[in-house]
Write a structure and sequence with these properties.
With 236 residues, this protein is of the alpha/beta class. The chain contains 8 helices and 5 strands; from the N terminus they run H-H-E-H-H-E-H-E-H-E-E-H-H. Strands 2-1-3-5-4 form a 5-stranded mixed beta sheet. It starts with 11 loop residues before the first helix and ends with a helix. The structure holds iron/sulfur cluster. The site of iron/sulfur cluster has 16 residues, from helix 2 and helix 5. Iron/sulfur cluster binds next to helix 2 and helix 5.
């Protein structure tokens, strides 16, 4: 599967299936499959997903959340964005707190979690070593995000981008998908709000443990960004 191959805009589930079959980045394919074979002791009885992790949430979402990449033993294990790791615990608890998720936990792809008007995705769909995709991997994966954005365009009205890496990866994707992104590109900051034509883009520190354990990102800071973005998206 080649992410640069032209594709007729189709339903989002079809795109998600195509993403899940992608093998365009040799280093990431090797890593995600190696992690799925060797596992972590605590998850020894799991059959890891070990493939690209597509976006999660309804095809008519009004609010999009853009992370960085799946975690080796989180999304790469469970097959769902931010599911089964500490970052996801923080994100989904906050989504639940502000009324955008049906439950506060996200532990497996069949745990019944539903998002209300929200979709969660990332600019890189495979777990990278040390959580660091290369610029080339980021650029190789961008066409998947562009296609997802084009499909969401009729309904999406706000996006929360988690962290500077996601911000740098997302802005060109929004531009390629047809939004007018200012030049020079606006800088990432927690609380940044950039109006595009018909969509408000919000910056938020990433929900990584490095930020949440140190208090750089508190639950209330995250809830505040989500509440503001939900209002901008017309969800409350
Ligand atoms: S990171 Fe993206 S482009 Fe690279 S293999 Fe995974 S899904 Fe494909």
């Amino acid at each position: 599967m080649d992410p640069h191959e032209p594709m007729d805009p189709g339903p989002l589930p079809a795109l998600d299936r195509r993403i899940a079959g992608c093998r365009a980045c040799p280093r990431l394919v090797e890593w995600r499959e190696e992690v799925a074979r060797t596992k972590r002791a605590a998850f020894a009885d799991w059959t890891y997903w070990g493939r690209p992790v597509p976006g999660f949430g309804p095809a008519d979402a009004r609010l999009l959340i853009v992370g960085l990449a799946p975690a080796a033993h989180g999304g790469n294990r469970t097959g769902r964005m931010f599911t089964g790791d500490r970052s996801g615990d923080v994100l989904y608890q906050a989504l639940y707190d502000v009324g955008l998720a049906s439950q506060p936990t996200s532990v497996s792809a069949d745990d019944g979690l539903a998002l209300h008007g929200v979709r969660v995705t990332s600019p890189v769909h495979c777990a990278p070593p040390a959580n660091k995709p290369t610029p080339r991997e980021r650029d190789t994966c961008r066409p998947w995000l562009v296609q997802e954005l084009r499909l969401l365009r009729p309904t999406v009205r706000a996006a929360v981008v988690l962290g500077a890496f996601g911000w740098q990866a997302a802005l060109p994707a929004f531009a390629e998908a047809g939004w007018a992104v200012p030049r020079p590109r606006p800088a990432f900051a927690h609380g940044a709000r950039v109006p595009l034509d018909g969509l408000d883009l919000f910056g938020c520190f990433h929900v990584s443990q490095r930020n949440t354990f140190t208090g750089r990102l508190t639950p209330e800071m995250l809830r505040e960004v989500l509440r503001t973005a939900a209002t901008a998206a017309g969800l409350n």
